[in-house]
Amino acid sequence: MTEQKEVFKPNEPNKVGMYVSGITRYDYSHIGHARAFVTFDILYRYLKELDYEVAYTWNFTDVDDKIICRASESKDNEPNHPLRDPLNLSNHYCQEFLWDMDDLQCLLPTFQQRVSDHMDQILDMVTKVRFSLLVMSFDWELVMEITCAFLLHSHVVV
């Protein structure tokens, strides 16, 4: 970073990769989600208007402690209710989010990834990072977030 205005030059001519860290789906969307995704939608449209080939990726974090807690609280009087399963709960709110973004006329990204689809790769990468950095103290939640972002942006297929 040069702390100066610079002309945008993608690494590959006319190609841009855009990764937007997605949301953790355990409840309905709020205005903060809308602001972030409308902002990136505008950038996506602008880059496309400039004739860039844009690989726009966002992820859904559908494996998280908050999701598990919310699922365990859901429908307490109905033990077999589908939303008591964390992935079902997250899928429900992911779909609600997509409908919200459609209502806001946001374009879908080129790629939509879900953390649950890449668990083996995430665990493998975290294990390698932990092993190689045993003697140092780290914020492992941050390491996990960076690992997920790298894998999901790389369009890794299981």
From TrEMBL:
UniProt keyword terms in alphabetical order: ATP-binding, Ligase, Nucleotide-binding
Gene Ontology molecular function: any one: ATP binding
GO biological process per UniProt: cysteinyl-tRNA aminoacylation
Coiled-coil region: none
InterPro entries given in the database record: Cys-tRNA/MSH_ligase, Rossmann-like_a/b/a_fold, tRNA-synt_1_cat_dom
A Pfam cross-reference name: tRNA-synt_1e
Chain ranges of the tRNA synthetases class I catalytic domain: 8-129
Designated name of the protein: tRNA synthetases class I catalytic domain-containing protein
Species of the source: Carnegiea gigantea
